[in-house]
Amino acid sequence: MFLSVKIAVEESLGWLLPTVERGDVCSVCREGRVVYFRVYSGERLCRSCFVKTFEKRVVRTIGRYKLFNPDDRIAVAVSGGKDSLSLLYVLKKIEKRFPRASLLAVTVDEGIEGYRDEALDYVEEVTRMLEVPLYKTSFEELFGKSLSEIVASKQFRASGLAACSVCGPLRRRAINIAAKRAGATVIATAHTLDDVVQTYFLKAFRGELGTSEIGLRLEGPFIPRVAPFRLTPEREVVFYAYLHNIPFQSQVCPNAADSMRNMIRRFLAEFEERYPGALFAALKSFEKTTPLGKKMQRVCSNCGEPSSRMLCRVCELTHTLIH
Ligand code: SF4
């Protein structure tokens, strides 16, 4: 069974998982058969210890960064991918220990032809299985056009933008709106250690490092966004999803190849492969550059949503590409 899981995870990530030797014994319980080698820590883990340490790390991340309050109504932003559905699964388990907290899921249909429908089916299936209420919205409903329509427009072609530069801000706004409608007090996103470090690099390359924190609870006139997988490598999230048979979309968005993030992702994945632990070290360095828990003060002069500029990106985009 393990070999098929290993191959499936490798295909999904495009990386090879470290090989475990036959007969290896778990370095935590000293009994179980090893299924996962955590190269950066040297731990060889059996299935049960992998799951336990994975979930413990999520709980530790929540505590260390004070991501949730005991009575939060938590909206998990789910796309139908492995990360978000695994996050929903883990938080559902953890939520049982906090009877005053409640969990719901929000999802956005960006309207990406030939891609989004399958992911939305998985979202429906997993939320039904976990008995988590689901709140849906779409670009069409909120902005009057699907992403495919925006990308096909004359204005978009003239703008020189990549599809992701439009999709990202609109999706973040759509999630905020859906979470507000659902009465959520906090939004949990499935950004992993890899995503968070990529975002720090992106910000550094754009000269925006230190302008706002990523995935930490900031107080302000909006629903805060937090990332409970901040200290969890992406490959462990995929492995967790496979071990629990969580169905997810593995097809990659047709627009993804163009993005600047994808270049950084490839570079960082290769770097981590060669120098295990580099992502944790990078996160530590970046955290020193931005004081944690910094308060987000500014809001957009047009819509009142949080923004580091006078006019937020969503207002700029809808003004130039849609209206
Ligand atoms: Fe949107 Fe880009 Fe992600 Fe596709 S890859 S869903 S276009 S942000």
Describe what you observe in this structure.
By secondary structure, the chain is α/β, with parallel strands linked by helices. The chain has 13 helices and 7 strands. The chain has a 5-stranded parallel beta sheet, with helices on both faces. Strands 1-2 form a two-stranded antiparallel ribbon. The longest helix has 19 residues, at 163-181. Bound molecules: iron/sulfur cluster. Iron/sulfur cluster binds next to helix 8.
Mean pLDDT: 88
Rg over C-alpha atoms, rounded to the nearest angstrom: 20 Å
Label the structural class. Answer: alpha/beta
Number of strands: 7
Number of helices: 13
| Range of strand content | 5-15%
Q: H/E order of the elements?
A: HEEHEHEHEHHHHEHEHHHH
Q: What's the end-to-end separation, in Å?
A: 53 Å
Q: Helicity level, as a percent range? A: 40-55%
Poorly predicted segments: none
Q: Assign an overall shape.
A: globular
Main pleated sheet: 5 strands, parallel
| Strand order across the largest sheet | 5-4-3-6-7
List of distinct ligands in this structure = iron/sulfur cluster
